[in-house]
Design a protein that fits this description.
This protein is α+β, with helices and mostly antiparallel strands. It is about 40% helix and about 20% strand. The chain has helices at about 1-5, 10-50, 55-65, 130-135, 150-170, 175-180, 190-200, and strands at about 70, 80-85, 90-95, 100-105, 115-120, 125-130, 140, 205-210, 215-220, 225-230, 235-240. It is rod-shaped, with a radius of gyration of 40 Å.
Amino acid sequence: MRRVANGPWFTELFWIVSDRAMSKIYTTKCLCAAAIVFSLTCAAYSSGRASGQYTPRQLEAFAERIGHTYWTASADNHDLTVLSAPAPNASSFRAPADAAFEITQLVGQKTQHVFYKVKFTSGKEGFISPDNFLEELNVTILTVDPKADEKREAAAAAEEENNRVEWIRSQPWSQAVKDAAIKKQVVSGMKTNEVKKVLGNPTRVSRIKGPQAISEEQWFYPNGNVLVFNNGLLSRVERKRE
């Protein structure tokens, strides 16, 4: 038995086991060290973000929004909240839906708290943190006016109405006829092109060939009125019965 205990193979086995044990201990220590470094890095990052610190590249990216216009929207009964001062504990107010605002400045870049200074079309000013801005982007903050089409249609209609009124005022009519025409009231004797200028195009036209080569046209309008023309001149208006 003593020969076996003192044999070369036992010594070799001993050193193999020892090396493996040391290797496991070394690996465990390395993993623990890596975990500690990772935890400290995360803590430092979280501490920096919590204190409002941003990198120069982030501040540069934030500043690129200065001068841009955005629009507010209401999402699931949730409105954009705007601070009244560049401080996390400042009082706040709810921005009205469908309101436009411009980012005018990036304040607090050398302090712990960075904010966008914004100005609404109403003249009211407020502050939004970059983090809150990113959270609300495409939710309560939109990059496109949600009522752009509606506003374009309204502007086109207003321009058309203005042109109609200007045309009426330029006609050699009496002031009474002009006042009536502005209110979209036609009078007998008007020509077809004049009626179109005053009322717009009819929805339907009916033509009738009358006696003695007198042609009659009936113009139908959305309000139910029927305008009757004889030989191109307005003869009467058959109003819709209430």
